[in-house]
Structures are given as structure tokens and as C-alpha cells.
Amino acid sequence: MRSPFAIDLPDTLIAAARRGDEAAWSEIYRHFERPVYTLALRMTAHPDEASEVLHDTMLKVFEGIAGFRGSAPFWGWLRQIAVNTALMRLRRAERLQFSDDPPEPEPDDQRDADWLPAAATDAALLRRALHALPDTTRTVLWLHHGEGYTHEEIGRLMGKGASFSKSRVSRGLSQLRELLGVTRTEVHHA
């Protein structure tokens, strides 16, 4: 799966941004606004927090672009800043818990599912199920399945080992199946 962050920028654009060119900054922001917001929303499950993560991430990118060495793709560097920013927000709010107690579910507004086509309804149901997971589990699931991080990388980000990530992904998938009312048999025959 190709990451939504995999946006190649010309070196000239990055160089212009380093010089403080506002048009270059605007272009970089436009390219990465949606992927950063989506990543933050998947990790935090709250639109306001996702907007704040987007804002904080872009500020860090703009402030730190002089330190970008170019040995890796720019988008990879920016994505790592976004992930770290979202994780820091969850840590500061003490929402990253390492117990298995599920959070209290938020009130559900069923109205949007009533008028959506089937595929969109399925996406809305999946989004609600993901948001019902504990923050840590949802974050690990998204980093692994949505962003393509390895268990080892996730373990390092969380200050844990690869086995932590593997068990969270396994448990999270089981919880998702339960929340969606999907049996293991249905998953294997789909």
C-alpha cells in the first residue's frame, strides 16, 4: 500500500521553503494538509485535536526544515513529525494507556448512516468502530495497517517492544470484529 504521504516534492521547492519563500510554504502545506489531518484524526479520533496536530506538525516542519538533510524522502520526514506530534498529544492528555480497558463509548449519531450508500455506510461504521477502540489500540492499528509501520517501529514509538504492537493489533482486530458484528468465518470468506 502506498502511503498518502508519498508525495514527491521538487528539491527546488524545499530549497525555496528553506529560504522562507511563502509561496513554497503554502504549496508544501497544501500537499500535506489532508494526509496529516487524516493521520491525526485516525490516531486521536477527534476532529479538533486532529486540526491541532496538523497545525503543530506544520509549525514543526517549518521551524525544522533547515535540519532536513534530504537523505530520506521529505514526505517520510514530515510523516514522522506528524506521528510523533499526535503521540505527544495523546501522552499529554494521558490517553495512551497500556491496559485493556475500553473507553466509554461516545454518543452515536445514527442519522448519517441512514442516508448514505452502502459503501459509505460501511466506511462510517468502520470509522465509528475504530473510534470506539481504546486510543492506544486504535493508534497501533492505524500505524500498522493504515501507515504501514512495522511492529518494531511501532514498539519503538510507544517505548515498548514489537510484541506489544503485535498483541495490540491482534486484540484490536478482534475488538473491531466484535464491534462490527463480524465473525472470523465471514472475514475468511469475504
From TrEMBL:
Domain of life: Bacteria
Protein keywords: DNA-binding, Sigma factor, Transcription, Transcription regulation
Ranges where the RNA polymerase sigma factor 70 region 4 type domain occurs: 125-176
Record has DNA-binding as a keyword: yes
A molecular function (GO) term: DNA binding
Family to which the UniProt record says this protein belongs: Belongs to the sigma-70 factor family. ECF subfamily.
Protein name: Sigma-70 family RNA polymerase sigma factor
Organism whose genome encodes this protein: Alkalisalibacterium limincola
